[in-house]
Every structure is written in C-alpha cells, then in structure tokens.
# Entry
Amino acid sequence: MTSHTLLQASANAAQEMPFEDFIRKIPKAELHMHLEGSIEPEMMLALAARNNIALRWRDAQALRNAYTFVNLEDFLALYFECCKVLVTEQDFHDITKGYLQRCATDNVIHAEMFIGPQTFLQQGVDIDTLMRGVLSAMRDAQRESGVHSGLIISVHRHRSEADALAVLDCIEPWRDQVAGIGMGGPEVGNPPSRFARFFAECRRRGYMTTVHAGEEGPAEYVRQSIELLRPDRIDHGVSAIHDPDLMRLLRERNIPLTLCPLSNVRLNVVASMADHPLRRMLDEGLFVTVNSDNPPYFGGYVNENLIAAQQGLQLDVEAIVQLAKNSLQALFIRDSTKSRYLQKLSQFVALRNVAPS
Ligand code: HPA
Ligand code: ZN
# Structure
C-alpha cells in the first residue's frame, strides 16, 4: 500500500458511520415545506397565548394527539384552523427562524419554503407584516448559521384564479426576494386547468413555478399540470406511478418531483411506506426528491422522511446520495451556486464509509 492509499484507508476507517448518521449528515436541500405547517405544538400554544387567541387544546400533548388524519381535506381543516395564531411580524419571524434552525441541525444547506398569504390576508394580517417577518428570519439564519433559503409564495386552488392573480400584485414589491410561486390546497375537484392564466402570468413576471399535483388527484392532474401550467417542478406527483406514458414524459422533460413520504403515509395517499412509489420512480430514473411537507403534523423533518423511506423501501447508499444530489439540482437558484453545493456533497461522500447496518 502506498502512503497515499494508507492515509486514505485510515481516513475512511475514521469516518465509518452508521447509515442513519450518514443520512442525517449528508448535505441536502429541502424543496417542499409549508412554513405555516412547521409550527411545533409548543410554539403553537405560545403564539396563541401571546396573541390572546383561544385554541381547542389544553396543552402541547393534546394538540399532538390531534395529528391523525383520514385524508388531505381532514388535515387541511386543522392546518388552516391553526393559522390563526400567526398575527404579528415577530410571529412570522419566529416560525421561520425555528424551521431554519432545524435545517442547520439537519444539514439542510438550502431550504425553499412555501407560505400561503391568502390565509393571512383574509385574517386581516397585511402583506408587509408577513413578508418582513419571514424575510428577516431568512437573512438572520444565513448570517448566524449559514443556512441559505428561498421563499415560495403559494396560492390556494380552492379559491378563484382572480384571487391568485391579486396575490401576485400584492407581492410585487418583493419580486426580487421571491424564489418562485406555487399552488396547494384541496386537489380533488380543483383541477389544474382552472389556473392556466395564472401560471402564464407568473411566467410573464419572471417567476419560477411549482404546483401540487397527483397527491390525492389522479395522474391526469399531473399531465394537465405539465401541459397547461408548464411548471418547473411538481409537488408530490405520486399518482404518476399509475401512468407509464406520464412517467416517460416526466423523465424526458426531467421535471423534479418533490415527494413527501411521511405526508403520504399520514394522509393515506399510500397504504404504507413499503407501498410508496419513491423507489420505483428512482429506479426508473425520475428526478425525485424527498421532503417533509408539514413536519410536526406528519411526524418528521426531512431526515426522518429519508430514514423512514430508506427503511421502508430498503434504499441503499447510492439511492440516498442520488436523492441528496437531486434535491440540490432541483433548487430555484443559479447554476454556479448549485455547482458549489454539489461539490460540497461530493466531498462529503468521498470521505465517508457507511458501516453495514
Ligand atoms: N397538499 C395540498 N395543500 C397543502 C399541502 C399538501 O400536501 N400542504 C399544505 N398545503
Ligand atoms: Zn405540500
């Protein structure tokens, strides 16, 4: 053995780590996380108390016990109910800071976060309050813990297209500080076709776009989204697994899917983690990523999602590295920054040996 390979071997031995540690430590991005869905029960109660807002739960455990859902609509009812605790600029700042601190611990080096202003505008919160609170926390996180982030403004598909267009006017002063525009809300009965003009207007204004599709909705909604809305990413997209032609289209166009495995299990989109299409999509060469959606509600942040998927689907080290790579490549950022992140990932991988589990 040359001295170089000896050195390398000892470095590797020193760095040998259990698979779960490897998953927690690998540099990664998160692309699908709703800020208003990131409030831990303890913070929820503290926000309610400081704003004098009555909640139905006596303590954090009681609220946590309410996190069982039959479907997306059932979850959204609780999610929207809890949004009333967010009132002041400080509130928006604190929830954003809370999530980004967790990113630092989890080795999420860049997070793109959704927020849906329509909920708060309807509650009488003005857009300045929301934007100032969130953006100041993003700047602080970058300075204090080196976590980079982007903000995706999300509109609701259960409201009108005119209302969605009004949101674009509302956020105009912050156009340069917005990473993209998304759309969520109850999917069944609210087909993508209703929002073709809205997505065209987003593009005209120069925004990157993404849309929730094929979560509870059929594969046809994913196809409609691609053809009529022409988004840069699809959020969820799990139902595409039922349509081989659509799978081919996703691969040919290299459209990222932001999968959220624990969310899908908790909302009964899939029967169990072992049934999740993530593994099959990865094997077919689709551009899939793993994300948390609404972490406290679904029992985990991005690392817990990766670990649950690894265990439920027997993913190997190469699959985890591919998922981390995909997450960095799917970001709405300039290519030079992506290259820097990918280099960081390669360096991490080159220096680690994973212990057999
Ligand atoms: N789907 C639709 N709307 C949402 C979601 C989701 O997963 N999370 C928050 N709003
Ligand atoms: Zn979502």
